[in-house]
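User: What would this chain look like folded?
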Amino acid sequence: MVTTREVSVDDATTVTQMVAALLAELGAGQAQAGLDTQLVANLLAMKERVYGFLAFTEERPVGIIMVSESAALFARGTYGIITELYVVPDQRSSGVAMHLIEAAVGLGTVKGWGQLEVGAPRQPMWSRSPNSALYLKAGFAEIGPRLKLPLHGLASRRAQGNPAGDPRLDPRRQRARYRRVSDSSAAGFA
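Assistant: Here's the prediction, encoded as structure tokens.
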């Protein structure tokens, strides 16, 4: 029998181990290196923004789902994002993941979230993944790919003396560059 309960800061070690196993499976070794129990404890302490549920068979933890709260106009207010979902290999296809998703849905209903979202791996991996069937079976609908811009790299470039960070992200530089190109093009045709 599968039972679930909300995670607490006291679960930081278990959460760290399970998320590290998930990241290792996804091939995210670089992200795994930055994951430590103190970071997890700090995130779990953010009780109004970060939530999670552990699944157990008897006393053994067999799965985890982590959810964070966000807000957006398109969602008409607050909504939840599943950030991690992991089930130990020997318990997959046994209903553990669905119990965890149901716990997240219950939380979202209580919190008044407009929706619950989950990011999928890159499309070729997603299309071959049994996870897509799990989420579709749970009632999720595809809404398109998600993209990311790592900000940690931008902060380190700024710390190294490049206060503007990546010039591609500075609209003033983009406009000035465009004006220089336009002016030189126009001068060539005069």
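The first strand starts at residue 2 and ends at 6. If you want, I can go into more detail on any region.
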